[in-house]
Structure formats: structure tokens, C-alpha cells
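Subject: mismatched residue count in predicted assembly?

I count 534 residues in my input, but I want to confirm that the predicted structure covers every chain. Input:
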Amino acid sequence: MRAGFYQSDVKPGDKAFNLARVARAFGGASFDLVVLAELFATGYVFASKADAAAIAEKVPDGATTAALVDLARAKRAFIVGSLVEADGEHLFNTAVVVGPHGFIGRHRKIHLPDVERRIFDPGDDVGLFDLDGVRIGVVVCFESWFPEQCRGLALAGADILCHPANFGGTMTPDVIRTRAIENMVFTITANRIGSERMGDSVAEFRGESRIVDPEGTILLQAEGAETLGLVEIDPSRARRKSSAVCSDLLAEIDRAGGSRGAKPLRE
Amino acid sequence: MRAGFYQSDVKPGDKAFNLARVARAFGGASFDLVVLAELFATGYVFASKADAAAIAEKVPDGATTAALVDLARAKRAFIVGSLVEADGEHLFNTAVVVGPHGFIGRHRKIHLPDVERRIFDPGDDVGLFDLDGVRIGVVVCFESWFPEQCRGLALAGADILCHPANFGGTMTPDVIRTRAIENMVFTITANRIGSERMGDSVAEFRGESRIVDPEGTILLQAEGAETLGLVEIDPSRARRKSSAVCSDLLAEIDRAGGSRGAKPLRE
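Triage response: the counts match. Full output below for your records.
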């Protein structure tokens, strides 16, 4: 399959503009799966929970999810997007997964940095989705720093970790590559570029979106410019769990206690 | 404390030569803790289990452990070494921890790459040691690829992960930095340099030993030359488990299920 990321700047608060930019970037490109950056349609910084609530949407019955479904239908592809979800009084930092046949599911970010805890409640779903036989696990930005979550997704059968992100530091690229290595899965990180004012400081986003294969090879690495990054991958490679170093990774994970007695999916 | 690694080549099978090289490198240097490379006194490649058994030693009653204890006494410092341990019919890839007052303990490598499984049995100890109030966790090379082991050591209170290694690929430096980041601990990797014939091929070792702090900063990074790499670190920084991103890492690890209901050590 042809899979990758769309890395771009975001115009804060202007959903129509940001969604149109995604549509324009997709243009005549051909692909099966694209991951968008975290909060790609709204921006990341909110002065208060009320400000975030003002642009929040229900899922799946919101404008951003609907626009992504339209795009997925037009491109006959799967898209992992991200938005502020409203559910009663609660807000979530939510990834949505859509495809050629419509809405597939959502994942509410579990691990929230302090700056997000003022706004969002943590989610508690697993974040595993079946895309016509290819299984993806969705981890949103800082969630990637928790090996337990990625291990759980890999043992449940995820072939690809899809990773919408908004990071500014140098750490997350190394962390996500480690998730690919230790779980022998593909990872696709979509980070945004540009900056947003955050109180008296400025949040700068780093780009450096990347695609890593199950043996840790960086298949594609963006720098700091707008990039639609696509590569051809064979997701079934993530099911082998065997390398020249270790012929049976699942047995070693079991020895480490990583599967906690549960039977990992062996294929 | 002043802590670091000694990265060097190894003359296969010549323990006296390799131990003398360590003693010469330590020379007039002053330090509190040094990590040596995996199997620094013997080399890594064995044609058979019998070949490995021929240079194996009991622990602590073996020549290499005794030589390290002498060095530790002379330098008034702690040393993490590595050797082939014999215990009855069994061989282990064992790290030994020694200090100014003698032998402290051993850690038998749990996760063995295929090439080592022909030689060694896997260990099953935790690998946590108290060095007069500073706690170290020992992970040997490929063990670092298993987040569960490093997480367990960090939750049990390890301030520093000491990481004797023999790697040739590009992956392990990123992996060990991730262990520092996700656990907010120091890591000290000692990798060897040089090469060894391995059947019809040659195993090349990469060097690139590194010291990483609890916020992921690479404090020192060797290249491919012989290096005694030392930095001043404050191990108590690893006990804060709090950063600008996440003020309570232990609570998030608990949310991730990383502590599995056990009470992590909070100080």
C-alpha cells in the first residue's frame, strides 16, 4: 500500500482554510493511507477550555469529520485526522479514522501533557482499527512516550502505528523510531510546522515527520517544509516479528512480561 | 558524581591484555562510576559453547571480577563490568558490579539475540544495585530493546541505567535515549569498537557510547575512537519524575498500566 503523512502549517481557528489546504495538497496524489498532524484544522493552543469548546465538534457528527469523509471518498483512501471533540461538558483531543466508506472510529488521547490537561479529559479507548485487513494503532503525540500503549497495540495486531503529532522538541522522532524497533511495526508520524503564540511565549513546531519500518529503517524523513510524504509499504512485514537479531520477538516480549499472560496475535 | 563509560577495542581471548588496557585508560582519571563494554575482556564471538566455556569464570570467584575489584579499590569508584559466567553446566552473559569495598552483585542478561542463545542461558534477576545511595539498573545491550525491563528498573528506583553493549547497528543509541526520556532516568551506554570475525562474516562494533540525562539531553556522545567519557551528573534529578511537559510522570505511567498496580518508589 501507499502510505504516509501530510505535514503543514496551521492557520489557528480557521477550519475551512486548513481543510482546503489538505484537499489542495492531496490534489492528484494517489495513496491508500495518510496521517494528518494533531489538530491540523484548528491549531493547538487554546487560552481556555471555553476557547477550545467554541471550536469543538461532536464525533462523528461534526464538520471536520464530514469533510475528512468526503476527502477519503474522493481519494478512495483512509485518513487519520485529529480534532477537538465535544461530548457533553467534556472535551477530548481526538483522532478520527475515516475511509472510502465513511467514518470508521475515533481514539481519544489518553496521555495529556500538562498544557492540555487544562482543556481535555483523558480518553480510555484502545485505538486499534481495521482498514480492510490492514490494522492500524493510533497514538497521538505524547502518547508515543508511553511504551505500554504502543506495546499493547502491537500485541493486539497493529501493523502500523499512526502518530498525529504537534511536537517542538528533538525527542519524539527518536521515541517513535524506538516504538517501531521494539514492536517491529511501521510508524507514520505527521507533525505540523509553524508556530503559535502561547501566553508570553511562542510554541514552535518542528516538522520532521517520518515513516519508519519494522526494522527501524527511516523510510522517509521530512524537514521543516510543507510535505506530502508517501512511500510504498508492505504492512504484512509487521506480522513476522522476526529479524536477523531475534527470530521470535513475541517470545522475548512474553519473557519480558510485555504480554502480561495474554496471547499475542501470532500470524 | 562523576560518571561515564570506557569505550575501547577488545583483543579476543586475551583477558590480561584487555584488563591492562582498562587499567591504563583509567590512569590518573578521577571518577565515581564507570561502565565497561559488554564482554570487554574476552570479545563477543564464540565458535561454540565449548569455546565460551573455556574462558568462562565463576562469579564472584573469578579472575576478571577480582581484577575489577582491585581497580575499583584503587580508584575508589564503582565499576560495571561484563564477562562470561559459568555456573555448573550453564553459561551466562553476566554484568558484574563492584566498588571500593568489593563485589556488589551480578546481573545475568535476560534477552539474548539469536547468536547468543547458542551459548548462554537467559538470566532472570532484576539487576538493581545500590551504590552507597545511588541506585543503578543494569541492562546489557539487547535488553535495552525491551521497555518492560527498563520501566521495571525505573519504577523500582533506578537513577541510572548502566548499559554495557556490543552493537553494530544504528538503532540502539536511539533506543537507549528513549529509555532515558520515557523513564526520566540517566543512561550510560558503553559500546565497544573494532571488529571480530564471525564465521564467514565480520561483526563490526560501532562505538557511539553515550550518556543521556532524564530529559533526553545527550550529555556526551563518543564517536568511533577509544574514549574514557566522563561527565558530572546529579543522580537525584532522576527522582523528580517531573518536567515542563508532564509534572507527574509516575501518575501517567500508572495510567498506562506500567506499574501494574505496584506502588512505584516516590521520593
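Chain A has a mean pLDDT of 96. Marking this ticket as 'not a bug'.
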